[in-house]
Amino acid sequence: MSHKSLLTLTFLLVSCGETRPSLTLDASPSGWQNDEVERVLSDPNLDESAKSYFQDLKLLCNSQSVSRVEGVPIYHDRSDSQIFSFYYEAKISRPSEPTIIYLPGGPGLPSIGNRSHWTTGNFVNIDQRGVGCNFATRHSHTDDAITTWQAVRDIGYVIKHLGLKDFIIFGHSYGTVSATQLAFHLENDLSMRPRAVVLMGTVGHKFGAMRDWHVSHIDQWQRLKSEYPKAGLLFANGSLPDLGGTRAEWGRYLFNVGNHYRASGEQLEALNDELSASGGGEGPIMRSIRKKFYGRDPSYQTLFPSYLRFVFTRISCQEIFNPLDSYGSSIDRNGNMELIISPNTPQNNDMCEGIAERFPYDSKNFQLQSPLIYLHGETDPQVPLSQGYYHFLNQNLSRRKEWILVERGSHSPLDDALNPCTEQIDNPHCKFYEKMGGEIVGENLSDIGGARLAEFGYGFKLIPNSFR
User: Fold this and answer.
1) Closest CA relative to residue 165, chosen from 65, 14, 17, 366
2) Is residue 357 part of a domain?
3) Domain check: are 149 and 27 in the same one?
4) What is the CATH number of the domain that holds 410?
5) Are residues 138 and 256 in the same domain?
6) For residue 37, which of 303, 353, 300, 308 has the smallest C-alpha distance?
7) Domain residue limits at 302
8) The total number of structural domains that make up the chain
9) 236-247: burial string, b at 16+ Cβ within 10 Å, e else
10) Across 362-410, where does the E strand assignment appear?
11) Per-residue pLDDT at 180
């Protein structure tokens, strides 16, 4: 997700009248060390991609941008718990503005180091326990320690350590589960309230059968083909692009890119042009996709490589996905995505072997008083609209709620609309983006979501009277 998009929201949220203290951060290196990382690196059977990942992680976590909080309990509800150092990344350079605390999805995606789009403003990036700079395995943390509820209380320590008074919690995908529980913890246990909780691609409750999840991605591929005809031509007459991928691998790839299907459609159309012009040469898009198929891109490996799957499996199986079915996706000879039984994918029962469902998530059990802003892509296949609606409709204590539906938006709807601004400064969407950061500072989101957006042909829809 574009952090620049997150920053824009700080200008749109109405002021709560909080005192905004000046903050001074320790700029010295974090002194990061992690026994579990060293233990994994000592494994003689560790493959080269894993070694490279952990070596890069050591450099990142020892950089000056990373800080730590000492004395965080592994088990927050046990008085005799062992403690550990929790690492985070923060930039607070504008004390008169709120700080965005960004919680990524997964479960188990890191955010420390992901700051390429942060140019101004205040932010805190979090690697939840078990992930990235807070890497852990079953050797250091039991299943009881790897839960969303334990993880968000770590973030409470960071907020207190930084002395934050004016902040916005921004969660995306699974990060909306973390954001909901973090806000609940702050309100009920620490007597703190964020300026707002912004939820994008909102998970309202644990998922049911994974078959339905795969079907929604199949529908997304059909939309992409109808809107970008050249994408469908890549698979015309039973052919496959000459990139080394099998039908199942292409199905898996398109399953994932469908989460950002507008950008994906443009990319696949450009790939078709590349193939037509070069006769199978090596253009930049082709190289990028070939790299994914050959497994040299850790971000693409199915969900997570084995050494990073600890947090994903614990939280998914205990809280989010139940039951996990043996389904996958493939491309048939007519260029359609089809549902297949795929026992070798991580989305199957073997992944949860020995891990029982214990804390099934239901957002209505975490009633929030903070202002809530929901952003959901109209065609999000990853988190269906019904999930977001459930969360919105079952929050009964919030004094202000707003639901924003992004037309043709996918799983990262702000990216769908604003990412072109990085290269196309004359794009009318980008002119609107500049307007959001300039002239309309402090205006109500309800005003922004109506005529002002329509003026630029921009596709936000607001449910009438949803902001109260």
Assistant:
1) 17
2) no
3) yes
4) 3.40.50.1820
5) no
6) 308
7) 210-352
8) 2
9) eeeebbebebeb
10) 372-377, 401-406
11) 98
CB atoms within 10 A of CB 252: 22
Structure confidence at residue 430 (pLDDT): 39
The answer to whether residue 231 is domain-embedded is yes
Task: Note the pLDDT of residue 363.
Answer: 97
Which residues, other chains included, contact 225 with Cβ-Cβ below 8 Å and sequence gap of 6+? Answer: 231, 232, 335
Examine the domain organization and report whether 8 and 55 are in the same domain. Answer: yes
Judgement on whether residues 137 and 23 belong to the same structural domain of the protein: yes
Tokens of 351: 């992944």
Residue 338 belongs to some domain of the structure: yes
Is the separation of the CB atoms in 264 and 288 below 8 Å? no
pLDDT at 9: 44
Whether 50 and 195 share a structural domain: yes
Reading the block at residue 324, the tokens are: 């996990």
Q: What is the pLDDT of residue 54?
A: 85
Which of 142, 363, 338 is closest to 252 using CA atoms? Answer: 338
Averages of pLDDT over runs of 10 residues in the chain (468 residues) are 43 35 38 82 82 85 90 94 93 85 89 64 89 87 91 97 93 96 97 92 86 82 88 84 78 81 79 72 66 49 60 90 69 85 52 82 97 87 89 92 80 62 40 34 31 34 34
pLDDT of residue 466: 35
Domain end residue (candidates: 332, 352, 372):
352
Residue whose structure tokens are 């493939």:
330
Neighbours of 33 (CB within 10 A): 11
Kind plus residue range of the DSSP H or E element containing 441: none
Query: Do residues 335 and 369 both lie within one domain?
Result: no
Strand order in the sheet with 460-462: 66-73, 83-91, 122-126, 99-103, 167-172, 196-200, 372-377, 401-406, 460-462
One-letter amino acid identity for 320?
A: I
In the structure encoding, which two tokens stand for residue 266, read together?
């443009």
> 387 is written with which tokens?
């999930």
* Domain end point (choices 352, 386, 416): 352
